[in-house]
Structure formats: C-alpha cells, structure tokens
Specification:
The complex is a heterodimer of chains A (170) and B (151).
Chain A: H1 2-10, E1 14-20, E2 26-32, E3 34-36, E4 39-45, H2 49-56, E5 59-64, E6 75-85, H3 89-102, E7 117-131, E8 138-145, E9 148-157
Chain B: H1 2-10, E1 14-20, E2 26-32, E3 34-36, E4 39-45, H2 49-56, E5 59-65, E6 75-85, H3 89-102, E7 117-131, E8 139-143
Classes of the chains: A alpha+beta (170), B alpha+beta (151).
Chain lengths: 170, 151
C-alpha cells in the first residue's frame, strides 16, 4: 500500500497545501513539490503567510492528484503531515536537486537563495489513498509511525448515493 | 480583478478545499465545483469528515489552479470562504443545475440521494488572484463587503 502512495507522489508534481493561520482560518495554496520516497520537499518564500503559519503550527494537510476524464480512474492522496524547514545543507542540496529534476522549468530561474526561500520538508503521518478504480469514493488509510508504515482500516466508499452510476466526462 | 477571478473560476471545475478538523488539523481534499460569481457550489457526502468539520467550523479555504505550459502563465484563484449546506430547495436546484452544466457526467435530472449527500455553498470573503502574466509571483487581493475579518 505504501508503494501505491509513492507511485502517486512520483506521478505528480503539484500539491495543494493547507496550513493554519493565526486567526483560525485554514489557508490553502498550491506549490510544486518533489518527493524522496514519502518525504515531500517544497520551497516557499520566507515572507509568505504559509511560512509564518508553519513556523507557528507545523501541522499541514496536502492533496496530490490530477483532473480526470473517467471518475473511475481517480488516484489521489490526502496527507496529514508535519512540515519544517530543511536546515541541513546536504539535505537542502538534495531537496533542491530533486525539485529541479521534477520541475525542469525552475532551472531557468535563479537558484533559491536561503535568505529569501525556505526549503521545506513534510513528513506524512497519515495518508489517505483514494483509488476510485475500486469503487467511487474508495479510500484506504495508512499511518506512518516511528516503526514505519502500518495499514489501517480499509476505508469507506463515499459514493454520494450514485453507486457505480457516475459516468465518464463526455 | 473580478474578471480574472471569474475567468479562472469559470474555466476550471475542480478545487482543493481545506477545512479544520475538531483536533485543529487542517484537512485538504479535492471536490468538483460550479460557481455563480463568488458563490461556489459543491457536493459532499454527509458521512464525510469534511461535512463534520464544516458543521463545527464554517471557515474554509479554496484553491483553484491548473498547471500551465509555462510557469510564467500560472494563474490561481484562492479564497477564504464561509461554507454551509444549501437547504432551500430552489437554491439547491440552482446549484445542482450549475454543477451538472460544469460536470458533463452529471445529469440535471438525476440528483444524488440528499439523505446521503449535501449540496454545499461557499461564500467567498477574501479572494486572492495569482496572475503570473503580470510578473512572477504577482497577486491581487480582494475583500468582500461585509467581511468580518481583515486578512
């Protein structure tokens, strides 16, 4: 099941990330990412609200997926993770390298300067794997603990009452 | 800026929506939507964590974005919004019709079982439009009249 999560991470490069603002609102934005197994790297501005939010509360929620023609092909991840800045220089270089490989367009820009840009990592704690090929709304849950990944309840099917009747987009 | 916001909202159909769980973790998922200007309609399962989160805390955050061919063309719509269930049958009909128009696999005449699913509305309060056509990282902010919070 972990392999399926890593596959989905490998096949995408954009994610929605939600952080907690100090005023209690969630804040959802999009960022490019690269992953090393299930560890997720991204770069944000030190001046951004996101960075301030994470400095104050490291709990984040991530979504990875893409638009679809046939709902039965949806494969996506919803992840609860803890985010922190990568301060180790070696790990920072590794993260930037992975990001450049996943996003070749970034190579045309100035490399991220540590004064302005923070390289961040998100360590997943709970991963929900959506796989609608197993039924509309089918989701499995994984927890990531110190001892590695543990399978949790094979999930629910949220089919809105449609059952299997939802057709591909024409 | 409204025009750019409506252009982005009108040319997409999926959004990321973040809600706040009872344990204060944010929770992000993706849903299909349709919009009537800054009112965003979507359908969720009543048994979902999202529905429970919104019942407890109606503040949500929305992100609409599609990856461009060139990052200098990136555009995104972000909003802080107040979400609630649409219980008025006339508005629910309106919201469902808009959803069926935007999502061609839905039929206007075949509605979900509303005992299982809920048609929701998110009223945008704070809008931010990212428009890299105007420069890398360019964004404009808009706060709706009557917004309770300043961002």
């Amino acid at each position: 099941m972990k392999d399926k999560a890593v596959d989905i991470l490998d096949q995408n490069r954009l994610m929605a990330i939600s952080t907690n603002r100090p005023d209690g609102w969630p804040q959802c934005t999009m960022v490019g990412y690269a992953n090393d197994d299930i560890l997720i790297y991204f770069v944000i501005s030190r001046l951004s609200q996101k960075f301030a939010n994470i400095e104050r509360d490291d709990r984040v929620s991530l979504v990875v997926g893409r638009d679809f023609h046939d709902p039965a092909t949806i494969k996506a991840l919803s992840i609860a993770a803890r985010a922190s800045e990568v301060r180790d220089e070696k790990q920072r270089r590794r993260a930037v390298q992975l990001l450049l490989e996943r996003h070749p367009g970034l190579g045309r820009l100035e490399p991220p300067s540590p004064e302005h840009s923070a390289v961040m990592r998100a360590n997943p704690e709970i991963i929900t794997i959506l796989d609608y090929s197993k039924g509309f709304g089918h989701a499995d849950l994984l927890t990531v603990g110190p001892g590695g990944l543990t399978d949790m309840t094979a999930a629910r099917d949220d089919d809105w009452g449609f059952g299997t009747a939802l057709k591909p987009v024409s | 800026m409204n025009d750019k916001a409506f252009e982005i909202l009108g040319s997409n159909r999926l959004m990321a929506i973040s809600t706040v769980r009872p344990d204060d973790w944010p929770q992000t998922t993706v849903v299909g939507y349709a919009n009537d200007e800054f009112t965003i309609y979507f359908v969720i399962f009543r048994a979902s964590q999202k529905f429970a989160n919104i019942a407890q805390n109606d503040r949500v955050s929305l992100a609409v974005f599609r990856e461009p061919a060139d990052m200098h063309l990136a555009e995104a719509f972000y909003a802080g919004a107040i979400a609630s269930e649409v219980t008025d049958p006339v508005e629910r009909e309106h919201g469902w019709r808009l959803l069926a128009q935007r999502h061609r696999n839905l039929a206007p005449s075949i509605q979900p079982d509303w005992a299982l699913a809920a048609l929701m509305r998110a009223e945008c309060r704070h809008v931010s439009v990212l428009d890299y056509n105007k420069g890398l990282g360019h964004s404009d902010a808009l706060h709706m009249t009557g917004s309770e919070e300043e961002r």
